[in-house]
Each structure stands twice: as structure tokens, then as C-alpha cells.
Amino acid sequence: MELTWHGHSTWYVTVGDTSLLIDPFFDNPATSLDPSDVETPDYVLLTHGHADHIAHAGEFDGATVVGTPELTGYVEAEMGVDDTIGMNIGGTVELGDAFVTMVRADHTNGINTGYEHEAGMPGGYMISDAVPTQESDAESTTFYHAGDTGLMTDMREIFGAYFEPDAAALPVGDHFTMGPWQGAVAADWLGVDHAFPMHYNTFPAIEIDVRDFEREVKAAGSRAEVHALDGDESFTLE
Q1: Residue ranges making up the domain that contains 136
Q2: DSSP string covering 146-207, please?
Q3: How many CB atoms lie under 10 A from the CB of residue 221?
Q4: Residue 64 included in any domain
Q5: Residues 95, 42: contact at Cβ < 8 Å?
Q6: Contact 52/31 with Cβ under 8 angstroms?
Q7: Which tens digit of pLDDT belongs to each residue from 28-57?
Q8: Domain annotation covers residue 27
Q9: What sequence ranges are listed for the domain Metallo-beta-lactamase (predicted)?
Q10: In terms of Cα–Cα distance, which of 174, 185, 48 is closest to 107?
Q11: Is residue 237 part of a domain?
């Protein structure tokens, strides 16, 4: 599984022959790319409707947009997206070589910064190369994109216990989401081997020293290795 961080919460994930772009927002200081520079993914996954997560969802002709039915309906009507898949919390869909499960996130979900539309529940995604079951599968690989969220016990009681993610992209910019110490607790609860900070240093309210997250992960007793990627940098998850 190949993971590429394009700044903020924007990730390009490749599972086998299937490509997924999560929360496309390229107007952030960590990336040098425009949407036109990015290879069109097979699927665009949206965690929620805030402008810094859906800004460029309509700029990938031929991609299928995935999100809550409320949000996919919005991008069809307002962004001219032709092909969508509506799903919801707890559901798993098979997208090419990937199995994608939408999980809960603790956040709000008005569409765009005016918050004039509701977009259903905000969420995160578990992305795996095998169908999730109750049985532990050491051969499978799972990446958790938390979306925008606060710390919640689901991360310990459900996500870590049953999905057994190998890696997690966690928002750590504080103010609107978890900050460094809560993100570190999340990494510990999830039991991941790899933790990737995201949703930080995009604008003043979420500016942090990302080394604080690294220190907090150690203080939490987590086994996770922290990877503070540069914008447009990739990591191979095996």
C-alpha cells in the first residue's frame, strides 16, 4: 500500500491497482501541486463537507466520489460530479482492490465555510486490502484516515480492537481537532505501528511544532513510529 501526503488532510492511497484520493484540498502550503498535476484517482473519498476537505472534489473527471449520501448529493448538484457512491457510518464498500469502511468521527459537518448545508455525519475511513472481519488477519494491511475528529473511545474499543490498523493519519493541529497529546493517545489506543500527523500548519489557528506530537507519542507509551512527512512525500506501508 502506497501512501502520499499532499498536505493538510489530503492523501493519495494506492491499494493494488486501485487509487484513492482522500479529502482533496491543494490550496495548502505543504504541497507544490495543483489538482491538474495529480493523476486522476479511481475514487475520491470525502470525510466531511468543510471547504478544506472537498475543495477540489469536482476536478477529477472520471473519478467516483464516495461519501455520505448527503455529501455525494451535494457534489453532484454543485460540483458537476457524475459518478458517486453514497455510504454511511459502519458500512464497507469494495472499491477495486480496496475495502473501505466508513467509521465515526467527532466533528461538525456543514458544507463549505458558510455552514449553510448539512452533510450527514462526519467520518473517517479504514482502507484495507482484505475484507474486514472479526478474525484477526496478520496478512492484511489497513490504513486509517481519521478525518477531522476529537479523541474518542471508539478508537480503543472498536477501531484498534477490531480493525487492527497498521497505520493512522491523525489530525494534530488542535483548535478544530485533536492536538498533539490527544493525537498521541489516539495512536496508542489504536495500536498502530505507524502514525502520520496531518491537519496542522495550514493556517494560523492550527500551527504547531510537530515535534510535540512525536514527544507525546513516546510519553503515551505507544509503539508507533511517527512519520512527519513533507508535502507530496510518499511512504510504502507493508
Answers
A1: 2-232
A2: --S----THIIIIIIIII--SEEEEE---SSS--HHHHHHHHHHHT-SEEEEES-SSSGGG-
A3: 9
A4: yes
A5: yes
A6: no
A7: 999 999 999 999 999 999 999 999 999 999
A8: yes
A9: 7-199
A10: 48
A11: no
